[in-house]
Amino acid sequence: MLTTVYTVWLMTFWPGVLGEDSVAILLEVQNADAFRSGKTVVWYYFVKSLYGSTGRVEVPVGAALALCAAMLARILAWCWAQRLRKMLWFGLLTIALAPHMIYFMGTLYPDGLFAVASAALLFEVWLCVQRRTASIASLLMLAIALPFAAFLRPNGLIFLAPVVIACAWLDARSRLRVLLITIAWSAAVFAGNQVHKSTTQETQFPLAAFETAGFLQKRAMNDLWTLYPHMNDPWVLKKPKISAATLETLSRQRPLEKIQQYRDPAYWDMLVFHPDGPQLGALADTDKHTVVREFWTYNLWQNLPDFLASRVNVFTSAALAQGGFPAMSYATNVLPRVSSQSTYRLWQWSTLEHWLLRVHAKSYAWRWLLWTPWLGFALLLWACTRGLQSAEAGLLLISIPMLIQWGGVFVFSIAGEYRYLLPFFTLPLVLLPAFATRNKPAVW
To answer: 20 to 30 A from 353, CA-CA: which of 168, 185, 261, 421?
Structure first.
């Protein structure tokens, strides 16, 4: 049923939703020597094997939708077998068939597939630990979900830990099979990285550059204090807010006024990609190192309230889905820029497209309620608390990695992108079954 719905959606919005990140990966596939997208080697080879051999964008989009349908169906089928009918309908209607969820799964970005795969992987880890063995269905799902959950995005590596640790609770045969699956995929990804060196985005420099740009913003109160120099004790304003080394380094690329002009409170893109902006990404490696060093050793501690306020702002912008999203029709902008044989709106289902766009627009209008991952956050806190109190290995193995993900997104995110929190929207598919069966053993 999920495959049918997703197929109808894809045929309506053929060849899928494309954005600027789609352009980047398609250009890398077409000429890896001349262009790097900044995506992982798994995403590169996934798109290369399906688009590179066919020249059709709809092939990797359709494959991602099919994989998501299989992984979601597995969890929902388990709910059916356990007679958790209310949970089944909730997961089906509010997650698997949610308009925005289908949108993200049908976009040539790795985020939708990553969110579903991480939920599928953690669900199988929990189920295997509960049953102390891995069934054929669990092994199959682990084999499908693991490469996309652990290697599709750099922050997915944390998911290798619960898979390996869970083996301590499995019987000998299941332990061997799970470890073989993990080793096989890890070896394949390692080999792929040797053949095709990926250039995933740095973590520390974007954060340091984004927050330092925020520290540089002019403060009206500071200007007032210059008019009344005796308003504060002399030691209050003695230390500068930004180190001299930072100011000197950033001034080499463009005037500091450029950084102040193009700094957005929820996005770092303007500092890097805008053609008229400060182009901080073009800094020399030594200058980037200086910005990072000065941020951690001086600038952060002189501006800690501003840093925390910025973290809350970026995280809340993402959680409330306040960022931008590629338009359903943006493929018209993308296809002419790549060597694709895909045809825009091949099937010409204009009436259905008009209706589905209205549904998507209504969903978007209520995104602060329908899209936000607050249920996932709440269930995660419950799982951590119960897991620690009751020493439940299954709950701890799925909650601790997600808690680390939560902290990582809060601290290091440099854009208020909802897609970064999408795994928490799919997390109830894992934690609601755990909540419903907390007092009875899980089977199948």
So the answer is: 421
Q: Work out whether the CA dihedral 20, 22, 24, 26 comes out positive or negative.
A: negative
Contact 131, 150 (CB under 8 A): no
Residue in the block written with tokens 């700094």: 263
Where b means 16+ CB within 10 Å and e means fewer, 30-39 reads: beeeeebbeb
Is the distance from CB of 246 to CB of 290 less than 8 angstroms?
yes
SS3 content of the chain, % helix, strand, coil (to 5): 70, 0, 30
**Confidence band for 440, pLDDT divided at 50, 70 and 90:** low
The Cα angle at residue 355 between residues 352 and 361, in degrees rounded to 5: 135
- Spacing of C-alpha 429 from chain mean position: 17
Q: Which residues on adjacent β-strands are paired with residue 86?
A: none
Contact status, residue 56 vs residue 14, Cβ threshold 8 Å: no
- Is-contact 272 265, C-beta < 8 A? no
What is the phi/psi pair of residue 236, to 5°? -65, -45
How many other CB atoms sit within 10 Å of the CB of residue 180? Answer: 12
Count how many residues are written for the chain: 444
Q: Give the tens place of pLDDT for each residue, 352-367.
A: 999 999 999 999 999 9
Instruction: Give the pLDDT score at 310.
Output: 95
The pair of three-digit structure tokens given for residue 200, joined into one six-digit string = 């995933």
Within 68-128, strands assigned E span: none
Contacts of 12 (CB under 8 A, 6+ apart): 347, 349, 352, 353, 356
- The Cα 84–Cα 92 span in angstroms is 12
Tokens 């306040």 belong to 322
